[in-house]
Amino acid sequence: MSKKGIIDPGHGGTDPGATGFGIREKDWCLRISLYQHKRLRELGADVDLTRDKDVTLDSVARTNKIRGKYDFCISNHWNAFNGKARGVETIYPIRVTDRFARNIANSLVNVSKLPLRRVFNRRNSAGTDWYFMHRLTGNVETIIIEYAFMDHRADHDWYLNDQNFYKAAESVVEEICKYIGIQYRGPKSSDQPKVDLPIVSGTLFRVQVGAFGKLENAERLQERLEAADIDTYLIQDQGLFKVQVGAYRKKENAEAQAKRVEAKGFDTFITTASGTPAHGTKDEPTQPAAVVTPSTSVSRSVNAGDKVILNNSANRYATGQTIPASVKNRTYTVMQTRPGQVLLQEIMSWVHVADVRLSSAASAIESGDRVTLNSNASRYATGEKIPASRKGQRYTVLQTRSGQVLLREILSWVHTRDVTKL
Ligand SMILES: [Zn+2]
């Protein structure tokens, strides 16, 4: 009889795992696992799943489903670190050779061209496996796959493409077939499920009309669009000024907008790059809720880019989980707003607007405001070093986006925290 296995989508339920650019690890894990399970069954493999929906499984419940019942387990994960680490990792238990893990890693690297970070095992101080998935699954050959770092831009973007995503899934399916000794056949195109991922923040379909190296050219196009009653906004990305006419959560809405704009004689382009939305989405207009500014006791809106303090009295995230004490009473940047709630950038969590107060140190900066670039500012929002000669100078804010402002005189985006309003 051939070997019996189980696919384990990492995390789930109240445990989202890592987060990168608005995607939660648990969602990618479930998506890749459901696909691999379906494909392996079609190919005649005897495989099960530890979870087939978004449910919580703690280490005990999870490993109880595995230990003593299977020959192998594939535990699917994505890594996250500091936005700079990247690449594929597989981790195998200390009592087996690295062979299966190495084959999977090589295969993934082969299809993705992402860097191979390492194939390894890890012992704890007691001399047993460091990872509970190895330690608590007995004789099962459990391979943990870290498909890439979901908080690394290039790694993340590779998986954001559905074709790539399922290519990676398929490469593991093929290695499993080799491992258990059944014949592998490639998938039919209809095998790729259309699974919509819940988005925790700004992954959007943006409708773009043009991208320019020079601001004047971008503004000229904006003017033409505005004259044709089309609402526009400008973002600076990778050294270009991009004129966009909408950002949507749903592709159909973006396509409909593209059609409307094209009917007025403009060329459009839909870009699916994820990231921080420059503005509220058009199909879900942001409605900032009123809060009280501590300094003035005058109520005003919380907007993207604002600095807020999470109150000590805050109890639960907008999503229901308990807020740990360690994240309270700290200052955060508002990334997005929706009615009654704000998304805090540093912890990528929605909280109730009633649970935050505006940081008196940083009232919102709007375009047209005059600001000073702080002398302790270190880098532009785009990463380059700010020369000393530009610090301490006064500038006019041309545009704002979450946590960043565009300074007119030097046409550079800087972090809002690095400027002081005059
Ligand atoms: Zn994980």
From TrEMBL:
Residues 274-297 are annotated as: Disordered. It comes from the Bacteria. This is SPOR domain-containing protein. Residues 288-297 have a biased composition (Low complexity). Keywords: Hydrolase. Gene3D superfamilies: Sporulation related repeat, Zn-dependent exopeptidases. Transmembrane segments: none annotated. Pfam families: Amidase_3, SPOR. It comes from Alkalibacterium indicireducens. PROSITE patterns: SPOR (PS51724). Residues 199-273 form the SPOR domain. SUPFAM superfamilies: Sporulation related repeat, Zn-dependent exopeptidases.
